[in-house]
C-alpha cells in the first residue's frame, strides 16, 4: 500500500515537471533578466527626461534660448581654446617681428615683455594649464628636467595662492590676450617723443583717413599728367592765335618798310 502511494506520487511529480513551459529564446531571457529590466528602466528615465526638456523649451522659449546660447558659447570657447604649443609659436612670431626692426624704433614695453618671455622659455620655466574654455601660461621656479631637491620636492612646489601672481598670459577664444596687448604699436618708440616741447607733445596725430589721403596724393603726384581733349583744343587755339599774331606783325613791318623806300 505504501509502495503504491510512493509510486503514484513520483509519477505525478514527473508529470508536473514535464508540464513546465520552456524558458524561451535567449533574447526573451535577456529582456526578462535583471540586466534587461535595468536597461529598460534606464531608457524609460532618459525618454521621460527628454520629453520634459522638449515640453519645457516649448513652454519657456526665452529660458531655453539662454541655455542653448550658454551651451553654444561654452562649446565655441572649448573648440577655440589655445593649445599648449600655440603660445610658443606666437612668441617666436612676435620675436621675429621685433628682430626685423631697429632697436631705436622698437616699443620699450613690447621689447621688454618679449625679452622676459624669451628668457623664461629658454630656461624651461614656462608652464601650461588648460581650463577647458581657457588656458593659462605661468612661470615656475625650475626646469621640469632639473635634478635639484627644491625642484622635485612636492612640499616646495608653487602654492595655489601664488598662481595668480605667476600668470604671464591668458589664452581665450584662440588668442593670447596679454601678448597681443603688449605688441600693440610695437614699432613706435615712445621714448623718442619724451623730450619734445609741450607744444609738440600735445599735438594730436592725424586721423587714419587723413594719412591715407596724403599717401594717395603722394602716389598720384608721380603719375604722368593726362591732358584732356578740351585742354588740348585750347592749347592748339592759343598756339594758332600766337602764330597769326606773329604773321600780322611781320606783314605790317614789311608794309612800313616798302612805304619808306618809295618815299
Quick summary:
Helices cover 62% and strands 7% of the residues. The relative contact order is 0.06. It has 263 residues and is α+β, with helices and mostly antiparallel strands.
Provide the helix percentage: 55-70%
- Quantity of strands, as a count: 4
* Gyration radius over CA: 46 Å
Main sheet properties: 4 strands, antiparallel
In angstroms, what separates the terminal alpha carbons? 196 Å
On the 0-100 scale, what is the average pLDDT?
Answer: 76
| Helical/strand content category | alpha+beta
β-strand amount: 5-15%
Numbering strands along the chain, what is their spatial order in the largest sheet?
1-2-3-4
**Overall form:** elongated
Parts with pLDDT < 50 across at least 5 consecutive residues: 13-22
Number of continuous helical runs: 12
List SSEs in N-to-C order: HHHHHHEEHHEEHHHH
Amino acid at each position: 500500500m505504501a509502495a503504491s502511494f510512493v509510486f503514484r506520487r513520483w509519477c505525478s511529480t514527473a508529470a508536473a515537471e514535464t508540464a513546465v513551459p520552456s524558458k524561451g529564446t535567449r533574447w526573451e531571457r535577456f529582456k526578462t533578466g535583471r540586466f534587461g529590466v535595468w536597461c529598460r528602466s534606464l531608457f524609460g528615465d532618459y525618454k521621460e527626461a527628454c520629453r520634459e526638456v522638449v515640453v519645457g523649451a516649448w513652454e519657456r522659449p526665452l529660458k531655453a534660448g539662454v541655455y542653448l546660447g550658454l551651451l553654444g558659447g561654452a562649446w565655441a570657447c572649448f573648440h577655440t581654446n589655445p593649445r599648449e604649443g600655440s603660445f610658443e609659436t606666437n612668441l617666436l612670431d612676435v620675436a621675429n617681428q621685433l628682430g626685423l626692426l631697429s632697436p631705436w624704433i622698437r616699443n620699450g614695453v613690447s621689447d621688454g615683455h618679449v625679452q622676459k618671455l624669451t628668457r623664461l622659455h629658454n630656461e624651461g620655466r614656462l608652464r601650461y594649464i588648460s581650463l577647458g574654455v581657457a588656458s593659462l601660461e605661468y612661470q615656475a621656479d625650475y626646469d621640469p628636467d632639473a635634478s635639484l631637491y627644491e625642484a622635485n620636492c612636492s612640499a616646495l612646489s608653487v602654492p595655489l595662492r601664488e598662481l595668480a601672481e605667476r600668470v604671464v598670459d591668458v589664452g581665450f577664444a584662440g588668442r593670447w590676450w596679454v601678448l597681443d596687448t603688449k605688441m600693440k604699436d610695437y614699432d613706435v618708440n615712445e621714448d623718442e617723443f619724451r623730450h619734445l616741447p609741450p607744444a609738440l607733445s600735445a599735438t594730436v596725430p592725424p586721423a587714419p583717413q587723413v594719412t591715407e589721403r596724403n599717401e594717395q596724393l603722394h602716389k598720384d603726384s608721380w603719375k604722368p599728367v593726362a591732358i584732356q581733349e578740351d585742354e588740348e583744343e585750347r592749347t592748339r587755339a592759343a598756339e594758332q592765335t600766337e602764330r597769326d599774331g606773329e604773321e600780322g606783325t611781320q606783314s605790317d613791318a614789311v608794309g612800313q618798310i616798302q612805304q619808306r623806300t618809295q618815299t
